[in-house]
Specification:
Length: 299
């Protein structure tokens, strides 16, 4: 196993009769940004808490760099929870220094790290402010600084982009990419699948405690049906309904999105469209991660 690979092997967790995780396995490699997506209650937060050692798995194992998650390993993890875990009445600078020292940094190293990360995240001028006086976006920047201030060996972030404005999203995206470029494995959950598609090297889709699909976005797209976009503004709404191996996914403003079976001849579809009148566009379309997600979790 590669150094600092985060590996989950056959992890299971129950809460009474509720199965939260069932035989869950995946890896996050050094330098990889891994998007962990699923509906509410799918098991994402439970997984992250087990990775941190906050929850104990009923079965299975989590290792970082081949080592089980003990107290020493936990100190090397940077974590950003969905329910923000900052002290609201404590000043930003003092709080970040305190958290850095809890992770083993000396006082001088902690202060230097606080300066570096608050400057990088654009909150250096808020060091003397209490957390509860900050906007939601700046609170999240402080929370990210808390996850980074001890130079973690792995980053685990639960919904880090929730509620952020576009500028803050760009800053956070850049920071995650920078940390991954240094060899840090990064795993984050998000409902913002456009961001996951743009940022992540690989994606895992979890549903009802099961990992339903893992791979690059391109690999996951390859498992889905082929789609065609046909812009035939003069065609009737049901022009494709009688074609064999073809299903209409969407139609608006004369543009129809079709799913076609692997054996379907796309040229036959084009010929059928041309019989309705002029065709302004006829192109293959790759499904988005959002569409793939819907397909996987409803299967």
């Amino acid at each position: 196993m590669t150094a600092n690979t985060l590996a989950l092997e056959r992890v299971s967790k129950r809460y009474g009769d509720v199965v939260a995780l069932d035989d869950l396995s995946f890896e996050v490699q050094p330098g990889e940004i891994f998007g962990f997506v699923g509906s509410n209650g799918a098991g994402k937060t439970t997984t992250m808490r087990i990775v941190l050692g906050v929850l104990a798995a009923d079965a299975g194992e989590v290792r970082l760099g081949g080592r089980p998650i003990d107290l020493d390993v936990r100190r090397t993890i940077g974590y950003m929870p969905e329910e923000r875990g900052l002290y609201p009445k404590m000043k930003v600078g003092a709080q970040l220094s305190y958290l850095a020292e809890l992770h083993g940094l000396s006082r001088s190293d902690a202060r230097a790290a606080v300066t570096r990360w608050t400057e990088r995240l654009g909150i250096a001028e808020r060091l003397g402010d209490t957390v509860d006086s900050l906007s939601l976006g700046n609170q999240q920047r402080v929370q990210l600084a808390a996850a980074l201030v001890h130079d973690p060996a792995v980053l685990v972030l639960d919904e880090p982009f929730s509620g952020l404005d576009p500028v803050a999203v760009d800053v956070m995206s850049e920071v995650l990419a920078e940390k991954a470029a240094t060899g840090v494995p990064v795993i984050f959950s998000s409902h913002q699948l456009d961001l996951v598609q743009r940022l992540c090297h690989r994606v895992g889709i979890i549903s009802r405690g099961h990992m339903r699909a893992v791979g690059t976005v391109d690999e996951l797209r390859g498992t889905g049906p082929q789609q065609l976009v046909v812009h035939a503004p003069g065609a009737a709404a049901d022009w494709a309904d009688r074609l064999v191996g073809v299903r209409t996914v969407d139609r608006r403003d004369g543009r129809t999105v079709l799913e076609i079976d692997a054996a379907t001849d796309d040229q036959a579809v084009l010929a059928a469209a041309l019989k309705t009148g002029p065709v302004h566009e006829f192109s293959l379309r790759r499904p988005t991660l959002t569409e793939l997600f819907r397909e996987v979790v409803t299967a």
